[in-house]
């Protein structure tokens, strides 16, 4: 699993790097951003995985969120992959912004023509940690996951489907109940087919309702002025109700005046990294 360095920039005492590799799961070249804090020069560090939202690449988070300073202070490696396979020449992959390229939805597709390449769930939970643990001073026992919007959905399902694998999980404006919203229904019908029962395996609200694993402390920030909240794409109340029923602790913060953008993420990313550090550095 050879990694080719694409860029490297000194940042907050460490290095923000981008690498390219041939993915065995996605059967294409993929880019992944890796922030190495100063601590990584001498010892193994925990790893915080960040999953971005619709239309994003590995670049959005590393250039807009301002995560590096807090990661440097807490000695945490940040790994930010792309949001879908790229350049697979699948008919229709570039036709819409919320399906196909830039919109992998962190599922393993079962339908033609997507199932050969669109296996983002396995890429994020298995291939990527193997790649990172092999090539960087990462502590394989200490990983956590976070994300925004579609990536918040991805972070939540990865944590809920793999009890104990991630020490912490958080999300910004996640798509909490995709089987009940337009974005999720479009993506899931395309990637997973028309049998809605199969969709439940990738829905955080459904997964929370049946969760039985070690305690998972969830932090969610949501902008009150988020246009996708009012458009019923995010549905956080459904997830909160499911977590409450199962006694899964959720800190849900509705932030007045904030929208769905990276300005919102920038404003609270330090809180999220502190939340993760509490569990990763315990």
Q: Give the integer mean of the pLDDT values.
A: 97
Please state the oligomeric state of the protein chains shown: single chain
**Strands, count:** 9
Give the helix tally: 10
Largest sheet: 9 strands, mixed
Share of β-strand residues: 15-25%
First and last CA, distance: 31 Å
| Uncertain ranges | none
- What is the N-to-C order of secondary-structure elements (H for helix, E for strand)? EEEEHHEHEHEHHHEHHEH
| Gyration radius over CA | 17 Å
Can you list the strand order of the major beta sheet? Answer: 1-2-3-5-4-6-7-8-9
What is the general shape?
A: globular
- Structural classification: alpha/beta
User: Roughly what percent helix?
Assistant: 25-40%
Pfam families: Esterase
Keywords: Cytoplasm, Hydrolase, Serine esterase
GO biological process, one term: formaldehyde catabolic process
GO molecular function, one term: S-formylglutathione hydrolase activity
Describe this structure in words.
The chain has 282 residues and is of the alpha/beta class. Helix content is 34%, strand content 23%. The protein contains 10 helices and 9 strands. The protein has helices at residues 59-64, 68-74, 120-135, 150-161, 182-192, 196-199, 204-209, 227-230, 236-245, 262-280; strands at residues 4-11, 14-23, 28-36, 45-51, 77-81, 138-148, 169-172, 218-223, 250-255. The protein has a 9-stranded mixed beta sheet with strand order 1-2-3-5-4-6-7-8-9, with helices on both faces. A hairpin with a 4-residue loop joins strand 2 and strand 3 (28-36). Helix 2 runs parallel beside helix 10. The two termini are 31 Å apart.
């Amino acid at each position: 699993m050879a990694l080719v360095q694409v860029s490297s920039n000194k940042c907050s005492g460490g290095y923000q790097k981008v690498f390219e590799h041939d993915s065995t799961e996605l059967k294409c070249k993929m880019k992944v951003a890796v922030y190495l804090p100063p601590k990584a020069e001498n010892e193994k560090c925990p790893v915080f995985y960040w999953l971005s939202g619709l239309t994003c690449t590995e670049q959005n988070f590393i250039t807009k969120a301002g995560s590096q300073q807090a990661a440097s202070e807490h000695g945490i490696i940040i790994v930010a992959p792309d949001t879908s396979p790229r350049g697979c020449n699948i008919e229709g992959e570039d036709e819409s912004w919320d399906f196909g390229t830039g919109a992998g939805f962190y599922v393993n597709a079962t339908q033609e023509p997507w199932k050969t390449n669109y296996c983002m769930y396995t890429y994020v939970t298995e291939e990527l940690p193997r790649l990172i643990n092999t090539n960087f001073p990462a502590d394989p026992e200490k990983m956590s996951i976070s994300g925004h919007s579609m990536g918040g959905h991805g972070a939540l399902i990865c944590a809920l489907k793999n009890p104990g694998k991630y020490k912490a999980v958080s999300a910004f404006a996640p798509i909490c109940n995709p089987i009940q919203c337009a974005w999720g229904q479009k993506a899931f019908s395309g990637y997973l087919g028309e049998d809605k029962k199969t969709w439940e395996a990738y829905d955080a609200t459904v997964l929370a309702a049946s969760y039985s694993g070690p305690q998972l402390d969830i932090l969610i920030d949501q902008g009150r002025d988020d246009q996708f909240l009012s458009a019923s794409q995010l549905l956080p109340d459904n997830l909160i109700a499911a977590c409450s029923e199962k006694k899964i602790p959720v800190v849900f913060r509705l932030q007045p005046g904030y929208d769905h953008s990276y300005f919102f993420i920038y404003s609270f990313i330090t809180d999220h990294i502190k939340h993760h550090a509490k569990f990763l550095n315990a």
